[in-house]
Design brief:
Elements: H1 2-37, E1 46-51, H2 58-73, E2 76-80, H3 94-100, E3 105-108, H4 115-123, E4 127-131, E5 141-144, H5 147-157, E6 166-173, H6 174-179, H7 182-191, E7 197-205, H8 209-222, E8 228-231, H9 234-246, E9 254-258, H10 262-269, E10 273-278, H11 281-298, E11 305-307, E12 311-314
Parallel strand pairs: 1-2, 1-3, 3-4, 4-5, 5-11, 6-7, 6-8, 8-9, 9-10
Antiparallel strand pairs: 10-12
Helix pairs in contact: 2-11, 5-7, 8-9
Length: about 325
């Protein structure tokens, strides 16, 4: 080897080998330290399972950020469906699977609870709460905006100046109907004070952009005199807007409702969506984790509703 490389070449090879070993050692050292310092489930005070939609969506991402902030402050392990969990977002068996997994608490965006799940909840130490879509289910708490108040505010905020008759189509997340339909109840209450507003149609759809878009276009074709669409979450609002834009009915048809996301914010900025209620999901996530901690600390089984704030986001030309 000396004859092939020469004395200087041998030294260079040796130096290269030493550098390689040193780099390899450095790359492994942090991993070893991390593994040694990693906490297991039993090292945490509580273990909570969360499902608030696809983690990439605005509401879910902001909610999880708030939940993680509260979790870090209270030594809680957060498992998020569709992110760091074996469970997918929207898993029909989420509650039962979470209970069998022996989590201490479950947070979800609300749906009806069948008899089997109710029995599991009554015999389990797991506490459950729903968020954003208010539920009236025995033994389950709620954290989020007052949905009935939101419904009232949507109708009260509609600008009908210059119109003797104002025709609206309301599109509601089908889950809300299962849980008591409180946003719509709030709308009906406010409509008693707004005689100029006529509800042409009330449609229940899944929280899906394509479904909402299809329904919006069908309504436009069936009711050429629509003045405004109302949607009750960010996904439905996005679908409605795409349907209205696709049929070239902007600015003739206004859009309003509840829910905020990247698309909704962009449409508000352009004035296509006149206004929407921002539920402030970061604050909901933070408060939801605190609520579960309180229930576990006190071993409370009685449900308690905690109403959080929300903001009305308006198109620039509507701002004072």
């Amino acid at each position: 080897m000396k004859k092939l490389l020469g004395k200087q070449g041998v030294y260079m090879v040796l130096i290269a080998v030493v550098i390689f070993i040193f780099i390899l050692f450095l790359s492994l050292l942090p991993l070893e330290l991390d593994v040694g310092a990693a906490k297991t489930v039993t090292d945490y005070r509580y273990h909570f399972l969360i499902d608030t939609g696809q983690p990439a969506e605005y509401f879910s991402s902001e909610f999880v950020a708030g939940a993680k902030a509260a979790a870090e402050e209270n030594d809680v392990l957060i498992e998020v469906a569709g992110m760091n969990s074996a469970l997918d977002s929207g898993d029909e068996g989420l509650l039962s699977k979470g209970i069998f997994e022996r989590v201490d608490g479950i947070i979800y965006t609300g749906r009806s609870v069948d008899t089997y799940e109710r029995e599991l909840l009554t015999t389990s130490d797991c506490v459950v709460l729903c968020v954003n879509n208010e539920c009236n289910i025995d033994g389950i708490s709620y954290v989020g905006p007052d949905n009935e108040k939101q419904g009232e505010e949507i109708i009260q905020t509609l600008d009908t100046r210059g119109k003797d008759s104002y025709n609206i189509v309301v599109m509601i997340n089908a889950v809300e109907k299962e849980l008591g339909n409180l946003r719509y109840e709030g709308m009906l209450k406010a409509l008693k004070e707004r005689s100029e507003i006529n509800v042409l149609e009330t449609i229940y759809v899944s929280s899906n952009v394509l479904d909402a878009m299809d329904q919006a276009q069908k309504s436009i074709l069936a009711h050429p005199d629509i003045d405004c669409f109302i949607g009750t979450d960010e996904t439905i609002l996005t679908g409605i807007t795409r349907g209205v834009v696709d049929l070239n009915r902007v600015p003739e048809i206004a859009i309003a409702g509840a829910g905020i996301g990247a698309d909704v914010e962009r449409y508000i900025g352009k004035g296509i969506i006149r206004f929407s209620l921002d539920p402030l999901p970061y604050e909901i996530g933070y408060e939801a984790v605190l609520q579960l901690c309180r229930q576990q600390d006190r071993k409370e089984r009685m449900p308690r509703n905690i109403y959080t704030d929300y903001l009305v986001r308006k198109a620039p030309e509507l701002e004072p």
